[in-house]
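Re-run requested by the PI after the first attempt was lost when the workstation crashed. Everything re-entered from the original request form. Ligand of interest: DQA.
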Amino acid sequence: MKFIIINGPNLNLLGTREPEIYGNQGFEQYLSTLRNQFPSVQIDYYQSNVEGELINKLHEVGFSYTGIVLNAGAYTHTSIAIGDAIKAITTPVIEVHLSNVFARESYRHESFLTPVCKGCISGFGLKSYELALRSFF
Ligand code: DQA
């Protein structure tokens, strides 16, 4: 089983970025914990701040991987192109958010991704990624 976590813009700054919202742990550190929780599966990781690069990665992995866990950051709320990329691939995508986007600004309540994703997990901090992975088992 092959999974990939794809993080979008500003998520490279996890740990220092608005820690009151996103926590104070960096993603790379969390990733090793997560890999230890799922020792028998491959969990790849990709992060980009660039919309087109996220789309390229979805195309690259989207026909061979078991599942994709995607936190597209603010592109969630703006990107028809990422939504179209998810529609174009065959690997199921779970949308994740660290924060509860529905408890935040109204512009975060809109998602171009939710309708084309298998599901959405929002509001559990870094645990959102673990919950998304568990949904495949
Ligand atoms: C986020 C929520 C988005 O609204 C925001 O733009 C992010 C992070 C989250 O993980 O809570 O960058 O996707």
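Saved to the shared folder this time. The pocket of DQA is lined by residues 10, 71, 73-74, 76, 97-99, 101, 108 (CB under 6 Å).
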